[in-house]
Amino acid sequence: MRRRTPVSPFNLAFLDIMFCGFGAVVLLVLIINANVLRDRRKVHADRRAEVHRLEMEVTADEEQLKKLRNSVRETDEKIEETRSRSREVQAVISRTRQELADLRDQTLAAREHINALQADLKALDTEHRRLGAEKKAELEQGRKVRRFEGEGNRQYLTGLKLGGNRVLLLVDASASMLAETIVNVIRRRNLDETTRRNSPKWQRTVRTVEWLVANLDPASSLRIYTFNTIPTALQPPKMTGWVPAADPAALHQMIGQLKQTVPGGGTSLENALALARTLLPRPDNVILITDGLPTQGAKKPFRATVSPDKRIKLFERAVKLLPKGIPVNTILFPME
């Protein structure tokens, strides 16, 4: 029979102690775990609150970012609009500067025109005084003259043969009839028609024609042509051919047409004198009013300038076109 091992009281007490210790450790672990869980929940709650706060901040920042982007877009649009306005302002400034430059040029041209008019006025005043002195001297010497009065002015011509039954009056209406110097001719030919028509030299030409017409033989007849490069007839309406000198209404209409003529262009004496061959019946007296030799023949020359020798040849060629036996009386106006 197996021998029973005797039970030691010491061993049981040791196991009790060990189990109590393990129980205490388990209880401690449970207590600690409970505290840890509580702290973890608290930490999780804090983290959730922090996350919620951060999400709100992100949402606010996104809204702010959106506002900033809209603000940047509006700023860009304003900048582009400002640039566009700046370009428009620069264009306006450029136009204004150009207009200012044009106004300065016009002012300068106006000043030059005024100076030219003052010079012409001075020359006209000098000519008026000279004519007045000559008129006074002629009256004092008792010389016989033929007089024409028109609009308060008087003009005298002597030594001119006004005979003939059919008088052809050729009036030079080229640009040189605007003034007595080349410089003033160039200035005046670029002015308006009224100013050119009122040039002192041309007005003296018109008054000369008036005097000639007024002193024709009442039994004679008349035809008036102005000419530059081509001749132009001054003809009363509904009338053709030679105009009776005794018809004051017709003569008044012809003089009115002459007053509306604006001098300009070159001088073709060849085309003017060629009229004597075409008129039927032919004239028996030609009165030529001009201020110098012609500048072209029947056609416009290729060159812009004509030499003095060439002008003499043009004159000689024009004279050859006159029919034989027709006298020509020339009134030569001054020219530089």
Report how far the terminal alpha carbons are from each other: 180 Å
Q: Total number of β-strand segments?
A: 8
Category by helix and strand content:
alpha/beta
Helix content: 55-70%
Note the run of SSEs as H and E.
HEEEHHHEEEHHHEHE
Average pLDDT figure: 83
Strand content: 5-15%
Task: Detail the poorly predicted runs.
Answer: 140-148, 150-155
The number of distinct helices, counting runs of at least 4 residues, comes to 8
Radius of gyration, in Å, reads 58 Å
Described by the principal axes of the CA atoms, the overall outline is rod-shaped
Q: Characterize the largest beta sheet: strand count, sense, and whether it forms a barrel.
A: 6 strands, mixed
What does this structure look like?
The protein is α/β, with parallel strands linked by helices and 336 residues long. The protein is 58% helix and 12% strand. It is built from eight helices and eight strands; from the N terminus they run H-E-E-E-H-H-H-E-E-E-H-H-H-E-H-E. The chain has helices at residues 9-141, 182-189, 193-197, 200-214, 248-259, 269-273, 275-278, 308-319, and strands at residues 146-150, 153-157, 166-172, 221-227, 231-234, 243-244, 285-290, 328-332. Strands 3, 4, 5, 6, 7 and 8 form a six-stranded mixed beta sheet that branches. The longest helix has 133 residues, at 9-141. The protein is rod-shaped and about 195 Å long. Mean pLDDT is 83; it is low at 140-148 and 150-155.
